Amino acid sequence: MPVYTLPELPYDYSALAPVISPEIIELHHDKHHAAYVKGANDTLEQLAEARDKEQWGSINGLEKNLGFHLSGHILHSIYWQNMTGPKDGGGEPLAADGVGDLADAITGSFGSFAGFKAQLTKAAATTQGSGWGVLAYEPLSGRLIVEQVYDHQGNVGQGSVPILVFDAWEHAFYLQYKNQKVDFIEAMWAVVDWQDVARRYAAAKSRADVLLLAP
Fold first, then answer.
1. All domains of the chain, ordered by start, with CATH?
2. Considering the entire predicted model, what is its pTM?
């Protein structure tokens, strides 16, 4: 069966400086993200062994580990693609930049870009312990929502599709920003790649019927 693999970064380690230092990018991708990939693959092997031996005493822990590592892998894979260099990223999505649908969806769902930015910033900056701030497409209503994700997989709407993620784990910022998580989240807005977010929004809308199991 296929196994999970660590995706290559779409830029070099220094591409997001000065917002995120090369040292953080290297450690975050090559060590932390790689650990989630390995953890997901190791857990799949352990589940296969449990099935073969029909030994289910550890099933609760294994299922929790799979959710943790797999969600960590998925969120980080989105995270790298959501960002681009400060010269090309940041600002806000505008119709003139070819991302009008996303801009309209943000305004329709949050009232204004400023309101959305404030909500996602606060959600990411106030995560208790480790977690994420996430902009997600919710297919039942067809609107965008902000979610505050604990660890990697808790406190999310079932069926919601993440399209923009802010990593608020300490390993994402501590070497550079120390304990000032809010400063890191504020700085993150300068490297958001709205083209990538817009593509994810369009893809989420196109598969909404599948997510809802509609006829």
1. 22-81 (1.10.287.990), 95-211 (3.55.40.20)
2. 0.95
